Automatic annotation (TrEMBL):
This is Metalloendopeptidase. It comes from Salmo salar (Atlantic salmon). Zn(2+) binds at H169, H173, H179. The keyword Zinc applies. GO terms for molecular function: metalloendopeptidase activity; zinc ion binding. Residues 1-19 form the signal peptide. It holds the Pfam family Astacin. Binds 1 zinc ion per subunit. It comes from the Eukaryota. Its EC number is 3.4.24.-. Coiled coil: none annotated. InterPro entries: MetalloPept_cat_dom_sf, Peptidase_M12A, Peptidase_Metallo. It is an enzyme of class 3 (hydrolase). PROSITE patterns: ASTACIN (PS51864).
Amino acid sequence: MAYLLSLSFFLLFLGLTQAHPIQLDEKDEIVFTEDPDDLVDITTRILETNNATTEMLMEGDIMVPRTRTAIRCSWSNKCLWERKKSENLVKVPYTLSSDFDSYSQGKIKYAMNTFHTKTCVRFVQRSNQRDYLSIESRSGCSSWVGKTGGKQLVSLKKRGCVNHGTIQHELLHALGFYHEQNRSDRDKYIRINWEYVERGEEPNFNKEDTNNLDIPYDYSSVMHYNRWSFSTVYRKETITPIPDATVPIGQSLEMSVIDVQRVNKLYRC
C-alpha cells in the first residue's frame, strides 16, 4: 500500500512537471514557467500595454532621452556590457523591484536563465556596481538600447509584460539590439507599406545605424514586429517580407537560434 501511494504521488508530480515546466531558482524554489498568455503576439502585447505609458519611446518600446528624439550607439565598448576576459563572461548586474510577486520574479529569472544556458551573458544580482539594470513594474514594456551607464531602467509592467518572450525582448534591447525590422539593411528583406502606416507613427520604421555582424536577417527573431505593426487599417500589412510575402515574421515564444548567435557574436562568447 505504501509503495502504491508513493507511486501515485510520483506520477502526479511527473504529470504536473510535464504540463508546466519548472525551473529551480538560486534558492531551490520551484518556479512554474509556462503560461497560456505567453503565446500572445509580442507586438500586440507591447504596443497595447504601452498605450498609456508616460515614457518617451521610439519604435514602440525603446526609451529615449526627453532632450532628443533618437538614440545612436557607436558600438564602442561604452555601449556594451563589460566582458571579463579571465572568466569569458559578460556580467550584467541587475536589481528586481519588490513590486513583483514571487511568480513574476520567477518568470523574469527564468527568461534570464535562457541567456545563461545559451550565451556567455550572465545577469547577476547587483551588489555595489555603478552600472546596472533596474527592472521595475512601470507603465509599460520598455528598455534603453545597450549600456547607458549608471542606473538603467527596464520596465516590465506586471500586467502585460511579464511573459517569457517579452522579457527576453526587453533584455535584448538592454544588451544592445534594435528591432530586426529597423536594421540598416532591412530594405533587402522587407517592404514597408507606408500607405497603411498610421499617421505620426512613421518614425517607428526608421532604419537604424546597426551593426549587423554579418549575420543573416531573421524573420523569426523575437525582436521582429508583426505584419500589422502601427497599421491604420485593420489587417492591412505595414511590413511585407520580400521576395516571398508568405514568410512568417515575428514570434512570441523566445529567442530564435539567430538571436542567440547574434548575442554570442557581439559579445565574443
